[in-house]
Amino acid sequence: DYYKINNRFNDNIRSLLVDAIISYIITKKMTMSVNLVDYIGDQIVSMFPSEVKDTYFIKYESNKNPKGKLYAKFYNSMRVLKPTGLVTSNVKNIDKPNSRKHSMHLEPEKDISYIVDQVKNDTSCPFSEVEHCQDLITTFEDKSQQIMNLIDEKIKDSSSRKLLNNLKDTPDISQNETNTVLFYLLHAIFVPTSKEVTMDHNGKINQVKHSIKDSQNTFMVFKNSVCEIEEYITLRRNEKNPIQPFILIVGSPMQPREIIVFFDCIKYKVFSILNAIDVCFKLIHLFNLEYPTESSIVWLFIQKYLYNLNTKFDKPCHTLG
């Protein structure tokens, strides 16, 4: 079968596995609980060692709602089935997300994957470069410790060093939270070298060098609530500048509560920072877009080191030497 040949799942197989598990739970009228989903996550990883448990279920020590494909699938299935009277609520220990938090319209993760797959299979769209590059999730698992060592060795910015120390000192942090911090800190070692030329109302020309924060903000944007995300999107639209695919996160690098990919005026909810980066990267190459100037070095590092992809459009960068 696919796993025996490739020693890993693709996203379609993960979705099929989750569909089958949740269908069984609902059909058998099993009581859904944190312990049950936690156990299922452990069993998946036990049977398929290359899988990451956080993909399927993330349990927080605080009162935050659980995350992951299993929880999301169960919640969405119950939301659809209960109004029809086909099922009754039988949820234990897993709290419903409050309506305010989930008031923003989001497209589910499988929809963005479907869109990418559809365009990949369209012969009129050249997608061969990305189609044959390495799998990000598998590659990152192999190289994450090397990236951590690189960040620890090279980081000089004081606020970034503080964040790294907080990561090291925090017990029981999930893999997704760790990954979010690592990608956020990449911008502190691949510092932008580009400058922006601006002109004020008097016609005076100024040169502004992009900062670490500028690079981070064009890669992933953190807001405290869904309302703040909507306000930020409105602000970006009002600037009348092209908006490349980028990542919006409700929370902080250490506590990403919701992860959203914004592209073409649509918000796609994904379940991990790796999936978000993978989607953004493929959309950028799919539609032949340029990396944001401020964070182009980080994107180029991801392209070359994690995807092992070289293109004729790559710009030379001494920082990556």
Structural description of this entry:
It is a single chain. The chain has 321 residues and is α+β, with helices and mostly antiparallel strands. It folds into 2 domains: 2-88, no CATH class; 127-307, no CATH class. The protein is 50% helix and 10% strand. It is built from 14 helices and 6 strands. Helix 12 (226-238) links the parallel strand 3 and strand 4. It is globular, with a radius of gyration of 21 Å.
Largest sheet: 4 strands, mixed
**Count of DSSP H/I helices:** 14
What's the alpha carbon Rg, rounded to whole Å? 21 Å
State which percent range the strand residues make up.
Answer: 5-15%
Instruction: Kindly report the average pLDDT value.
Output: 80
List the helices and strands and how they pair.
Layout: H1 2-6, H2 11-27, H3 34-47, H4 53-56, H5 69-81, H6 109-120, H7 128-131, H8 136-154, H9 158-169, H10 175-189, E1 195-199, E2 205-209, H11 212-217, E3 220-223, H12 226-238, E4 246-251, E5 256-263, E6 266-270, H13 273-286, H14 296-306
Parallel strand pairs: 3-4
Antiparallel strand pairs: 1-2, 4-5, 5-6
Helix pairs in contact: 2-5, 6-13, 8-10, 9-10
